[in-house]
């Protein structure tokens, strides 16, 4: 193993020492893209290897994070080696194809995310989140932003994404924290837990993400609008499944990890539903036909394809549907095609990061079925490759990328209304970084434009980033602006909460409620409790009016109760005095918050992160690496992935039943604490994991029992060895019925 790892390291060092390469020449005849579009290779090996994330700098150059050490063998050997790099790719002859590469950082262990922000580069290398300034394409003044960004765990289930949103906060997938630099200091605060791999936003600033078996999830509302009440965990406004349709239409019978399980493949051995969805992207490039604007594209690497979804907005909610039935936007029979992330480019094209690796599932989760089939098809030999592809419209000429590096202030102001969302976002951030107060009047005038435009939202948040917002401006925009702009103004007004401004806010609210705008009412409702904190008597009538109007609407009810954390008891008294419907969704939500406050039960995003690990056992570490991604680090479970372990019947006596689940896996449905869990995918067993001994498995079983059962138990490695002999009826995962039939008393 040492010799093999040495040669892998030598190969990567040799490749990374080169700078100039022959231009990419990739055969794309096995790829079928939707009519009216063309697929072009931008870069490939040996220019880059195993790319997982990309970003563009202000000159339009491509930066890539390479996870070179990931799954070079079916056993994952070499994963611990510092083989990863961050590279800068350049097109020096101007033909649109990369022909030069330089290392920016190397000797990284599984880097997973990068973002150009604040004049430098933010990058994730577990467990740390780092920020470095960039001078002459070299890293300087490195700062540790978060030492617990991606703590030890399975590489498939660690935070990633690093996406700057319109609101000037940086969001992540597989994380419940967001980040921002303000006055030279890095801020970190809780937010909704979102997705698994990849995150994106629309023009308004709503967030979209997904997980393995659900191709598109999203928030109905702007970030953190319904999470401010620490004693309420929102269930109706965030982390919502936007489409029930998980169907995929591959061109061929691709190898899928649990393809043997019932319902995974159809009669032609084609994948039926997504099993490894990732890398969603809201297209905002402005260079596709109009009907593609703000469509969400989703990577499905297990089936070698990219999906297209169309969003629909309903005032207080969002839904999506697949653009077509029976075909995909892009699909291939190339089993090395592994799209893992997507980007909007400075030229308006859609860019695809293709890891181009035969096996991208982590070794801890690979089934014996997959390992056998992958060896037969030589998928394990597709390594040391990587591609970046781009999609252009055939009928719309691609835009000439702007050079933000040399842009004047006037250009940046103009580009806040650019048709390309990537340009708009970057222009906003550069204006904030330059922080020229002389531009404030121009920005204010832009916000006040009579003709509604997306530039107004960007201008508003440029002012916010420069700390130059004005209460009267926000009030005017909230009253008279287009509804999306007005919603942002209502949100930003909260920074001016005081007794002097309350009467003006009350007048605003009384006007908005008469408009009957469901969209604006969400944001006004979410602010009422904040403003009422110091002016309950003044705001009470409007609070009651909104409560009565939306008592049966779960989304606006969450908005109302979320903003009311500091007045929960007073809010209840006000409603009771007005004979409010106590059976309503809103009232029950309010009661739940009051009880949670009394019992000190917090929304999990506000609970201190991490486990109380017993340093004397290995079980906790194994649990974090393999089990926590689905069951939650605190055993609370994850919707659509795995049921909770806390107080579960299957974690209590007999421990042998828990051991059989851990060894062999479990396929749903299953009942836990009286609730039925469908489990979209079977839980994999550990007995075929060659890196785990019987002692290791005994440790993790014992840890789970001690951590989550009411009556902790212990199991020996000898018992684990004996239990290996017990198999399910079909030799694969157990079902609930089979487990309940087993008698462990005799």
TrEMBL record:
Cross-referenced Gene3D superfamilies: Cytochrome c-like domain, Leucine-rich Repeat Variant, TolB, C-terminal domain
- This protein's superkingdom? Bacteria
Give the Cytochrome c domain ranges. Answer: 614-708
Xref: Pfam families: Cytochrom_C, DUF7133
Arranged from A to Z, the UniProt key words for this protein are: Heme, Iron, Metal-binding
PANTHER family named among the record's database cross-references: LARGE, MULTIFUNCTIONAL SECRETED PROTEIN, LARGE, MULTIFUNCTIONAL SECRETED PROTEIN-RELATED
- Name the chain's protein: C-type cytochrome
Q: Which organism is it from?
A: Maribacter flavus
């Amino acid at each position: 193993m040492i010799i093999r790892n040495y040669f892998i390291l030598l190969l990567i060092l040799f490749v990374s020492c080169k700078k100039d390469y022959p231009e990419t020449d990739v055969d794309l005849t096995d790829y079928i893209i939707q009519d009216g579009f063309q697929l072009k290779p931008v870069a490939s090996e040996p220019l880059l290897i195993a790319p997982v994330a990309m970003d563009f700098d202000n000159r339009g150059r491509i930066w890539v994070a390479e996870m070179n050490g990931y799954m070079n063998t079916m056993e994952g050997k070499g994963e611990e080696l510092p083989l990863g790099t961050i590279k800068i790719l350049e097109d020096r002859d101007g033909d649109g194809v990369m022909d030069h590469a330089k290392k920016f950082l190397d000797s990284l262990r599984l880097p997973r995310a990068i973002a150009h922000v604040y004049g430098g580069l933010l990058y994730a290398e577990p467990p740390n989140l780092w920020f470095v300034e960039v001078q002459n394409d070299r890293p300087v003044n490195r700062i540790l932003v978060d030492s617990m960004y991606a703590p030890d765990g399975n590489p498939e289930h660690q935070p990633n994404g690093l996406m700057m949103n319109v609101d000037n906060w940086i969001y992540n997938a597989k994380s419940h924290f967001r980040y921002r630099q303000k006055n030279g200091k890095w801020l970190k605060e809780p937010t909704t837990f979102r997705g698994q791999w990849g995150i994106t936003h629309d023009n308004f600033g709503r967030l979209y993400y997904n997980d393995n078996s659900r191709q598109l999830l999203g928030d109905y509302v702007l970030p953190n609008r319904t999470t401010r009440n620490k004693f309420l965990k929102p269930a109706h406004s965030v982390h919502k499944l936007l489409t029930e349709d998980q169907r995929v239409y591959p061109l061929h019978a691709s190898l899928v990890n649990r393809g043997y399980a019932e319902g995974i493949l159809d009669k032609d051995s084609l994948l039926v539903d997504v099993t490894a969805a990732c890398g969603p992207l809201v297209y905002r490039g402005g260079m596709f036909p109009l009907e593609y604007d703000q469509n969400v594209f989703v990577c499905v690497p297990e089936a070698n394809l990219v999906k297209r979804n169309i969003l629909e907005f309903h005032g207080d909610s969002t839904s999506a549907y697949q653009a077509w039935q029976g075909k995909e936007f892009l699909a291939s029979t190339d089993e090395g095609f592994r799209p893992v992330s997507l980007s909007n480019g400075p030229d308006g094209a859609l860019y695809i990061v293709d890891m181009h690796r035969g096996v991208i599932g982590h070794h801890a989760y690979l089934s014996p079925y997959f390992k056998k089939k992958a060896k037969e098809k030589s998928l394990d030999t597709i390594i040391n490759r990587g591609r970046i592809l781009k999609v252009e419209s055939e009928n719309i000429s691609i835009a000439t990328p702007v050079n933000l590096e040399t842009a004047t202030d006037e250009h940046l102001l103009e580009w806040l209304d650019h048709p390309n969302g990537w340009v708009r976002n970057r222009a906003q951030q550069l204006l904030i970084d330059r922080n020229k107060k002389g531009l404030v009047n121009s920005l204010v005038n832009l916000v006040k434009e009579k003709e509604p435009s997306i530039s107004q939202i960007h201008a508003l948040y440029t002012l916010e980033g420069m700390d130059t917002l004005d209460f009267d401006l926000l009030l005017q925009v909230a009253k008279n602006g287009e509804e999306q702009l007005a919603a942002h103004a209502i949100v930003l007004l909260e920074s001016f909460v005081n007794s002097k401004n309350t009467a003006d806010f009350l007048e605003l609210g009384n006007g908005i409620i008469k408009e009957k705008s469901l969209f604006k009412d969400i944001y006004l409702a979410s602010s009422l409790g904040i403003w009422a904190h110091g002016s309950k008597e003044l705001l009470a009538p409007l609070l009651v009016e909104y409560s009565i109007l939306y008592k049966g609407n779960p989304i606006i009810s969450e908005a109302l109760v979320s903003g009311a954390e500091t007045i929960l008891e007073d809010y209840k008294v006000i409603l009771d005095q007005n004979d409010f419907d106590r059976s309503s969704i809103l009232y029950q939500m309010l009661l739940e918050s009051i009880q949670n406050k009394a019992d000190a039960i917090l929304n999990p995003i506000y609970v201190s992160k991490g486990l109380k690990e017993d340093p004397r056992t290995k079980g906790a570490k194994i649990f974090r690496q393999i089990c926590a991604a689905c069951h939650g680090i605190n055993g609370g479970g994850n919707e659509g992935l795995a049921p909770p372990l806390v107080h579960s019947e299957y974690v209590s006596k007999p421990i042998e039943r828990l051991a059989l689940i851990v060894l062999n896996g479990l396929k749903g449905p299953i009942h836990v604490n009286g609730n039925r869990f469908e489990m979209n995918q079977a839980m994999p067993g550990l007995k075929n994991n060659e890196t785990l001994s019987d002692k290791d498995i005994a440790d993790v079983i014992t840890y789970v029992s001690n951590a989550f059962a009411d009556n902790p138990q212990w199991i020996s490695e000898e018992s684990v060895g004996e239990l290996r002999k017990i198999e399910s009826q079909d030799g694969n995962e157990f079902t609930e019925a089979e487990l309940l039939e087993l008698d462990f008393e005799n």
